[in-house]
UniProtKB/TrEMBL annotation:
Residues 1-237 form the Protein kinase domain. It comes from Lachnospira eligens. This is non-specific serine/threonine protein kinase. The chain crosses the membrane at residues 301-321, 341-361, 373-403. Keywords: ATP-binding, Kinase, Membrane, Nucleotide-binding, Transferase, Transmembrane, Transmembrane helix. It is an enzyme of class 2 (transferase). The gene is spkF. The keyword Transmembrane applies. It comes from the Bacteria.
């Protein structure tokens, strides 16, 4: 461990032990009071955690630090408040079909994002205890200790990892793990939360029994070949359910009115989903190294982004310097100290909005409703920007009135 790595880890103050056996500790970042989880791993893929630290994936805790030390890996990641799916089952019993379907869809979405990475990450240990359900129903996939990158050159796994009953056959020497391994784990988990039975004891009787059967095929070739394919099938199932409900609605309200309502709903839903997909692909986590202190546009040290940022900051300076104001009563251009105050306000407003939309020092995630990357946070990003701008201009007008310029 280098001196720099020790310095970075020193920012996290230990609060309490969450799991002594697994070396999991709740810590707090003294810089911003954010709660995190610190884990010391004996079994891990350093490359996987390094990759997770470089991207932000909705439904996966953000990795803040990833430091190798004496054969172990120290990982600091976002603390997700909620209950594990195992705790939910222990406290409430088996879940119904609707609840299981919702979890399956969210898990499939997470897998799509993981498998689309370059290289793709396979979790390999999907089970109830590794799924956290927040109060709002949001699903998070945690514990990437067994995760690995897909390697097309290998015929089988070199290390057998995973949890019995939830792990696919290829994880025990019958082939190489790939994206289809996670599809098996998803199917086993969803079947279990509805039946309480491990794979082989029977498939849950529900509208998506056939989907679960295909997920749980012994031969990976017989399963869904990608998370995207599985997600599409789940969407088709949802569509058929909507169609059934539409037929019922036609009986109650009339065909023409129902078709209009359904089409409007689907159009709005499709627009929101497309916006959400595009939004969530961007990287919203700020680098945990010294680069996070650089201005937006420079943090990735990418030549193209840096050039664009330079142009934008030059535009801000140019707009500030050339800004002019004319007195509304006399029509005479404002000069002197009053003009200087206006120019300062213009600069602060433009620069401040750049910091806001550039998420400087992760400022956006500190406000209510902005913890997660979803449609709501997208809307709130612009809502907060408008509100902050309005408040700033209001205070500026009051200040100018006090010093006699208004």
């Amino acid at each position: 461990m280098t001196l720099e790595e020790e310095s970075r880890l020193s920012f996290y103050r230990e609060l309490t032990v969450l799991d002594e056996k697994k070396n999991i500790v709740l810590v707090q970042d003294i810089r911003n009071s954010e709660l995190c989880v610190k884990k010391t791993l004996d079994i891990y893929s350093h490359d996987v955690y390094e990759q997770l630290a470089s991207v932000r994936i909705e439904g996966v805790p953000a990795v803040k630090e990833c430091v190798a030390d004496d054969g172990k890996l120290i990982v600091v990641e976002e603390y997700v408040q909620g209950r594990s799916l195992k705790q939910v089952l222990d406290e409430q019993g088996l879940l119904n079909e609707e609840q299981a379907y919702d979890i399956a869809v969210q898990l499939a979405d997470i897998l799509v994002r993981l498998h689309q990475l370059e290289p793709a990450i396979v979790h390999r240990d999907i089970k109830p205890s590794n799924i956290i359900i927040e109060k709002n129903g949001h699903v998070n996939l945690i514990d990437f200790n067994a995760a690995r990158h897909v390697n097309a050159d290998k015929n089988e796994d070199t290390r057998m990892l995973g949890t019995v009953y939830f792990a696919a056959p290829e994880q025990f020497g019958f082939g190489q793990s790939d994206e289809r391994t996670d599809i098996y784990g998803l199917g086993a988990t969803i079947n279990y939360i509805m039946t309480g039975d491990k794979p082989g004891a029977g498939i849950a009787e529900c509208r998506f029994s056939d989907i679960l059967k295909k997920c749980l095929m012994v031969d990976a070739k017989d399963r869904y070949q990608s998370a995207e394919e599985l997600r599409g099938v789940l969407d088709m199932l949802n569509y058929s359910i909507v169609q059934d409900n539409r037929k019922k609605a036609e009986t109650a309200f009339g065909k023409d009115n129902t078709i209009s309502v359904v089409r409007t709903y689907r159009n709005i839903r499709d627009i929101i989903v497309k916006m959400y997909r595009k939004y969530q692909k961007r990287n919203y986590d700020i680098d945990t190294s010294w680069r996070r202190y650089l201005l937006p546009g420079f943090r990735r040290l990418n030549v193209v982004y840096c050039l664009i940022a330079l142009v934008w900051y030059a535009v801000i300076v140019w707009m500030t310097i050339t800004f002019a104001v004319t007195d509304s009563k006399t029509g005479i251009p404002v000069t002197g100290g009053e003009l200087t105050m206006y120019k300062i306000a213009v600069f602060v407003l433009l620069f401040g909005m750049t910091m806001w939309f550039g998420n400087y020092l992760n400022i956006r995630r500190k406000l209510p409703g902005m913890k997660k990357i979803n449609v709501l946070s997208t809307i709130l990003t612009f809502g907060y920007a408008f509100t902050i701008s309005f408040i700033f201009l209001a205070f500026f007008a009051i200040f100018m009135a006090i010093i006699g310029y208004l």
